[in-house]
Design goal:
The protein has a 6-stranded mixed β-sheet with strand order 5-6-7-3-8-9, with helices on both faces. The chain has a single domain (about 5-65, about 80-250), classed as Rossmann fold (3-Layer(aba) Sandwich). It is α/β, with parallel strands linked by helices and about 250 residues long. A hairpin with a 2-residue loop joins strand 1 and strand 2 (about 15-25). The chain is about 35% helix and about 25% strand. Bound molecules: adenosine-5'-triphosphate. Keywords: ATP-binding, Nucleotide-binding, Transport. GO terms for molecular function: ATP binding.
Length: about 250
């Protein structure tokens, strides 16, 4: 289910102002990429552009998939807000897409995924009866239910407490193995624990170009990187310094 992506010439303008242009990146099949940068630099816009959701008047992207087929319908989206429909029970939220497209529901997969995210027995609960962390687990199960090879996540774990966030890292890292993931995050620790590569969107040195992407390698091989890995604190300090530099350059 892996699919690599190569993007070139990414550009977005809003109201005559260039947010970024000439942006290129490679997302290796089955790898996890974290997208960081100061607030308002265009991370969510870039994610929407890749997912085919960007609506600005001027936008462009040359996107090549490794199998040469269109990416359409092969991208799952996970947002900061869980976006669960409150009038549908937990399990009904998983197969919302099936119902809208009049496809048969995959009951076995839905039950398996809810069990995998630790919500066995809560299938018939209403979303409002769940904690924020549990709701984000449902959102993760719903993302996985789509069985898309590419997953775009916009600050998916930022609305939960620190411990729940660490638990969700472990869960997401295990369950999303093999998918090509692009995740916007403001959290350097999250980026370093989960990602194989880090992309920092920072002000371009070229006038009129808006932002540019800087690529930084991730840490070691094991994912998620254990919290007590000695490489983590210095890498985190370096990344924070890098992000601060790009903030000051803005
Ligand atoms: N549809 C739109 N129309 C006009 N301007 C927009 C639109 N969407 C985003 N912008 C502007 O583009 C800039 C980048 O927004 P974007 O949400 O992509 O940034 P971001 O890096 O994800 O920010 P944050 O980290 O705060 O979520 C912002 O100045 C925002 O106001």
């Amino acid at each position: 289910m892996s699919l690599g992506l190569t993007l070139n010439n990414a550009r977005i303008d809003y109201a005559g102002h260039t947010l970024f242009r000439d942006i290129s990146a490679r997302l290796e099949a089955g790898s996890w990429t974290a997208l960081l940068g100061r607030s308002g630099c265009g991370k969510s816009s870039l994610l929407r552009l890749l997912a085919g959701l960007e609506m600005s008047d001027l936008h462009q992207l040359d996107l090549a998939t490794d199998d040469g087929q269109p990416l359409t319908d092969r991208v799952a989206w996970m947002a900061q807000q869980d976006l669960l429909l409150p009038w549908r029970r937990v399990i009904d939220n998983l197969w919302l897409g099936d119902d809208l497209r009049r496809r048969p529901r995959n009951r076995k997969l839905a039950h398996e995924l809810l069990a995998a995210v630790g919500l066995e027995g809560r299938e018939q609960a209403w979303p409002d009866a769940l904690s924020g962390g549990q709701r984000q687990r449902v959102a993760l199960a719903r993302t996985l239910y789509q069985q898309a090879p590419v997953v775009m996540m916009d600050e998916p774990f930022s609305a939960v407490d620190a411990i729940t966030r660490l638990e969700l890292h472990d869960l997401a890292s295990r369950l999303l193995k093999g998918r090509t993931v692009l995740m916007v995050t403001h959290d350097p620790l999250e980026a370093l624990r989960l990602a194989d590569q880090l992309l920092v969107l920072r002000p371009s040195s070229l006038p009129g170009h808006g932002a540019e992407l800087e690529r930084l390698p991730g840490l070691g091989a094991a994912r998620p990187v254990p919290l007590d890995d000695p490489a983590l604190p210095p890498a985190q300090a370096q990344l924070i310094a890098r992000l601060r530099d790009s903030e000051e350059a803005a």
